[in-house]
């Protein structure tokens, strides 16, 4: 018990002064202290510090300025989030409360509708601007093309259609719902060609089929002769 070296005792002195040693250690230190003036002196120093701490802590008080700063900071920390929450709530309330959100919604709908319209117009199949007629056995070499210009004017271009006698002419029929309108009465050049502007009472695109027949000179109210060219949509 008493053979603990002086150096080892010294390391326990601080804890001894604070009364935090185990009982057997405390006894060993006490026994050593009786025979060691150096350790007694050191213990006295530790005890002085311990006493000072013991008396100083209860009396300790923050400087008034520090106290004020701490209080202000505490109040700010509590007050700021409250202000921000209220401000956010106010924003949401204003944006979602009619009539504030209605112009925004109307704008979104308008933009979507305009976009849909543009897409639909781009993808909508353009009406055909050219119809190629098909020859029949009455004029197997003949070709005919109807071309519709941007302004709606329709032109018939004919090639290799046999020239007729003076008593006969070709007549173009515009067919719509079984009704036949006369589009042109014409003769071809010696080489079998012709360029004719088509006269149509209705918008040309409203017709579903076209036909060319051989008729008496001057044309007929309805087709009577052989069909030489035709087109069906
Ligand atoms: Zn000692």
Q: Describe it for me?
A:
The chain is of the alpha+beta class and 233 residues long. The chain folds into three domains: 6-59; 65-123; 130-232, Sandwich (Immunoglobulin-like), CATH 2.60.40. Helix content is 45%, strand content 23%. It is built from five helices and eight strands; from the N terminus they run αααααββββββββ. It has an eight-stranded antiparallel β-sheet, with no helix packed on it. A hairpin with a 2-residue loop joins strand 4 (168-176) and strand 5 (179-186). Helix 2 crosses helix 3. Zinc ion binds next to helix 1 and helix 3.
Summarize the structure.
The chain is an alpha+beta fold.
Key descriptive features of the protein:
3 domains; alpha+beta
Share of helical residues: 40-55%
> Numbering strands along the chain, what is their spatial order in the largest sheet?
5-4-7-8-1-2-3-6
Structural class, by secondary structure, is alpha+beta
Beta fraction? 15-25%
Uncertain runs = none
Query: Which ligands are bound?
Result: zinc ion
Order of helices and strands: HHHHHEEEEEEEE
Domain count: the total is: 3
Rounded to an integer, what's the Rg over CA atoms?
57 Å
How does CATH name the architecture of the largest domain?
A: Sandwich
Compute the number of helices.
5
What's the pLDDT, averaged over the residues?
A: 82
Provide the CATH top-level class of the largest domain: Mainly Beta
Shape by Cα distribution: rod-shaped
What is the count of β-strands? 8
Distance between the termini: 123 Å
Briefly note the CATH topology name of the largest domain: Immunoglobulin-like
How would you characterize the largest beta sheet? 8 strands, antiparallel
